[in-house]
UniProtKB/TrEMBL annotation:
One of its GO terms (cellular component) is cytoplasm. InterPro entries: Peptidase_S1_PA, Peptidase_S1_PA_chymotrypsin, Trypsin_dom. SMART domains: Tryp_SPc. The lineage of its organism: Eukaryota, Metazoa, Chordata, Craniata, Vertebrata. Gene3D superfamilies: Trypsin-like serine proteases (2.40.10.10). GO terms for biological process: proteolysis. The keyword Disulfide bond applies. This is Peptidase S1 domain-containing protein. PANTHER family: GRANZYME B (PTHR24271:SF81), KALLIKREIN-RELATED (PTHR24271). It comes from Bubo bubo (Eurasian eagle-owl).
Length: 157
């Protein structure tokens, strides 16, 4: 739906028999403020990834059906997703964005942060993250100059 809508993870929808009301905020730049660009939309149905695992932190994603439909604007637009079994190859440029932590010990950001990175060979992330990298459900991204990342870490050289 939105390239960077603030929404639930798969964990939110995993309580059978528990009534849940979910509203997503689309078009947000600063999630701690009410901005004119924001659209608050109700989720009427969701589908959790069939291989979601809270224990192993994999496939933490849901498809959401919104009502009413989101209004397409400069801040809210569609994004292209790969087809079934299509892999994004090494060297492909991509954007990573979010409101979370920018370091292991830092505070969460309320302002949308974005960085341009390149898809790396799987062996790069397997080396750095050992058993924590799952190529079948993750994309390995980085910066050739080691100056940019999704968050600040001390990785071995």
């Amino acid at each position: 739906m939105s390239a960077w809508g603030k929404g639930p993870s798969a964990e939110c929808g995993r309580n059978p028999g528990y009534r849940v009301s979910i509203t997503v905020t689309l078009g947000a730049h600063n999630v701690s403020k009410n901005e004119r660009s924001q659209q608050k939309v109700h989720v009427v149905h969701w589908v959790i990834h069939p291989k979601y695992s809270k224990k192993h932190h994999v496939n933490d994603i849901m498809l959401l059906k919104l009502k009413p439909r989101a209004k397409l604007t400069k801040e809210v637009s569609y994004i292209l997703l790969p087809s079934h079994n299509e892999r994004v190859g090494p060297g492909t440029k991509c954007k990573v964005a979010g409101w979370g932590r920018t370091s292991r010990t830092g505070k969460k950001s309320s302002v949308l942060m974005e960085v341009n990175l390149k898809v790396q060979r799987n062996k790069v992330c397997e080396k750095y993250f050992k058993n924590g990298y799952l190529p079948q459900s993750m994309v390995c991204v980085g910066d050739d100059d080691r100056k940019k990342s999704t968050w600040k870490v001390s990785a071995p050289h």
